[in-house]
């Protein structure tokens, strides 16, 4: 009688304690990067809408693009326009304070993590500021004046400062979501040396800002309240979509 030898089945490998655990199925490293890129593009679209709401609805002040806003500040100083100086000055100071708050909330970031929870917490502060703006926007019938106008300019600008800091913390190919001069510069600089790295994302971000401005411009005439509500709605959607990415790490 012959007996067949059986090879013992090796026990399952113990989990590596050095490897961070992930909760449930989720995107791969490449898929996670794409998901993050989509969220950044959505935030950029929202910034385009918000800038147009400020420019058309709050006496031509930018609340997301501080380069244009500072130019308007200088022009107002040259013309001696006190009201415009106040609006542009309020926007610039509030944006700077929003940056400070956003960087403090989002921390130094984690280059290995797709979307750190601290970034979502910073976006929560952005959302609160935008909702306060929206409440005032609705209360004034989308026609703020005087002190209320300055307060709404400051709220919107602070929100955009927080959003800029949160996006910058991600260190995602230099994307800021609120202005694209640096993004365009990085893209052209890379192309000049024959590198197309991140050119697709950068192009999409530039297009998203223009598309958001177009959407805001189209809504400001017939539905200014909807235009004012679109930004916070997008930020809320981005926050919810980012939750599954909190524990994902880039491959």
TrEMBL record:
<feature type="transmembrane region" description="Helical">
    <location>
        <begin position="200"/>
        <end position="219"/>
    </location>
</feature>
<dbReference type="InterPro" id="IPR010699">
    <property type="entry name" value="DUF1275"/>
</dbReference>
<feature type="transmembrane region" description="Helical">
    <location>
        <begin position="123"/>
        <end position="142"/>
    </location>
</feature>
<feature type="transmembrane region" description="Helical">
    <location>
        <begin position="37"/>
        <end position="56"/>
    </location>
</feature>
<keyword id="KW-0472">Membrane</keyword>
<dbReference type="Pfam" id="PF06912">
    <property type="entry name" value="DUF1275"/>
</dbReference>
<feature type="transmembrane region" description="Helical">
    <location>
        <begin position="225"/>
        <end position="245"/>
    </location>
</feature>
<protein>
    <submittedName>
        <fullName>YoaK family protein</fullName>
    </submittedName>
</protein>
<feature type="transmembrane region" description="Helical">
    <location>
        <begin position="149"/>
        <end position="168"/>
    </location>
</feature>
<feature type="transmembrane region" description="Helical">
    <location>
        <begin position="85"/>
        <end position="103"/>
    </location>
</feature>
<feature type="compositionally biased region" description="Pro residues">
    <location>
        <begin position="8"/>
        <end position="18"/>
    </location>
</feature>
<keyword id="KW-1133">Transmembrane helix</keyword>
<keyword id="KW-0812">Transmembrane</keyword>
<feature type="region of interest" description="Disordered">
    <location>
        <begin position="1"/>
        <end position="30"/>
    </location>
</feature>
């Amino acid at each position: 009688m012959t007996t067949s030898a059986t090879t013992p089945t090796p026990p399952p490998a113990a989990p590596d304690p050095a490897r961070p655990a992930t909760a449930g199925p989720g995107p791969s490293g490449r898929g996670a990067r794409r998901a993050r890129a989509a969220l950044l593009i959505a935030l950029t679209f929202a910034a385009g809408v918000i800038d147009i709401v400020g420019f058309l609805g709050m006496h031509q002040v930018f609340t997301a693009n501080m380069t244009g806003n500072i130019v308007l500040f200088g022009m107002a100083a040259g013309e001696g326009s006190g009201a415009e100086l106040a609006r542009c000055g309020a926007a610039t100071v509030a944006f700077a304070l929003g940056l400070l708050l956003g960087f403090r909330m989002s921390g130094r970031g984690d280059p290995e993590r797709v979307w750190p929870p601290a970034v979502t917490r910073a976006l929560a502060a952005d959302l609160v500021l935008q909702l306060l703006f929206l409440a005032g926007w609705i209360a004034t019938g989308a026609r703020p004046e005087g002190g209320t106008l300055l307060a709404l300019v400051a709220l919107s600008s602070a929100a955009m400062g927080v959003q800029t800091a949160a996006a910058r913390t991600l260190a995602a190919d230099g994307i800021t979501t609120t202005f694209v001069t640096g993004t365009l510069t990085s893209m052209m600089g890379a192309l000049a040396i024959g590198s197309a790295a991140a050119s697709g994302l950068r192009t999409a971000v530039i297009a998203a800002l223009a598309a958001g401005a177009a959407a805001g411009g189209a809504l400001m005439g017939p539905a200014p309240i909807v235009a004012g509500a679109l930004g916070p709605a997008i930020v809320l959607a981005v926050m919810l979509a980012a939750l599954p990415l909190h524990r994902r790490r880039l491959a």
